[in-house]
Design a protein that fits this description.
By secondary structure, the chain is mainly beta. It contains no helices and seven strands. The protein is globular.
């Protein structure tokens, strides 16, 4: 499962620092591996276009190649100050199924 999360956000209300995460299960969702951060750095969700809320688009995908997940997601482009505030990104994630992450 993939999701957006604000756990690294700061008290500064001018920004909404956001990251994209993945969690995986190998037993039909009875237990889950640890959350793994997909984004290398946080992005500012408040730079996203507004469409009944901050809108990063609906271009997300999740596939696999062997033991690696291919993750596709949208985030704001922190360097862009023009009209193109979001871009599609891709990342490879190898699930962490360590016992410490179970639960």
């Amino acid at each position: 499962m993939t999701y957006y999360d604000f756990r690294y956000d700061t008290p500064d209300t001018a920004t909404a620092l956001t990251d994209y995460w993945i969690r995986t299960s190998t037993d039909g969702a009875a237990t889950w591996g640890p959350s793994q951060r997909v984004t290398p750095t946080s992005f500012d969700m408040k730079k996203a276009p507004i469409a009944d809320g901050y809108f990063t688009g609906d271009y997300e995908g999740l596939d696999h190649a062997g033991n690696t997940f291919k993750v596709f997601f949208v985030q704001t482009n922190n360097a862009d100050t023009g009209g193109n505030a979001t871009d599609v990104y891709a990342a490879d994630v190898t699930p962490d199924h360590s016992p410490a992450g179970r639960g």
